[in-house]
Amino acid sequence: MNDESLQHDVLDELGDHGLQEIEGLLGRDASGAREFVDTTVSEISGGLLDRAVTAPDEVQQAFAEAQEAPLQGVVTLGGLGTGGLMDGLLTRLADPAANAVAKKTGLPPATVTRVIELLIPVLVSVLSKRAAHGSQR
Q: Which pTM was predicted?
């Protein structure tokens, strides 16, 4: 999984409105919010890769489900818990990622956790679209 490509896709999916919401929560400008998103996506994708080694069946099932039913924005309306196996997997990776990002950025863990809660549905949507496109090749 290419971190830069995934980061770009997440920022595209977030759009200006989503990025502005993150700016407000973090008290940072657009550049700071983008940097935060990049750092967070990198941490979560690293956790996902680690999980693929330690629990490959769980990761394979999550991607298989994502290939069958791309969410295309529906998940972004429902928040956490609405994205099936992929949502559950990413939600489990959120706490370790939040701790790592809080240490790297110096932001309060509660703030980082809140922003990650906003990013999880976006990540689910992006990964579901990628999985669906991968199955069509």
A: 0.80
